[in-house]
Amino acid sequence: MAGWDWFTGILLLYTATWTPFEMAFLATDDSSMDRFVANQMYLEPMFLLNRAVDAAFIVDIILVFFLPYTSPDGALVDNHLAVVRQYLKGQGGWSERALHCR
């Protein structure tokens, strides 16, 4: 799991640095909108890379939804209903809302 955490951490750094640069400095003229309408944008490498990053984050949300957690007293909780409750009470609500913002 530590490898996955490093992978998603690197993707998070990529997203935190590339997305602001992309929004601020890359061209968004009318010709880019014409490419989007003509479905040519879906073949651009950066568009595909961004969708792969999105897919990795969705997989991460699903994985965390099913992984056990450690309770405050140090016990490993693997009851799925308790894991779901803890996830939704903690970070899950934020993850789910972030998906709808895109």
Task: Label this structure with key terms.
two-stranded antiparallel sheet; about 100 residues; mainly alpha; 2 domains; 4 helices; about 75% helix; single chain
Strand content: under 5%
First and last CA, distance: 27 Å
Number of domains: 2
Which structural category fits the helices and strands?
A: mainly alpha
Give a quick account of the main beta sheet: strands, pairing sense, barrel closure: 2 strands, antiparallel
Runs in which pLDDT lies below 50 for 5 or more consecutive residues are none
Taking all Cα atoms into account, the compactness measure Rg is 18 Å
> Roughly what percent helix?
over 70%
Question: What is the molecular shape?
Answer: elongated
Give average pLDDT, whole number.
77
Oligomer: single chain
Enumerate the strands of the largest sheet in spatial order, edge to edge or round the barrel. Answer: 1-2
Number of H/I helices: 4
* Order of helical and strand elements: HHHEEH
Number of strands: 2
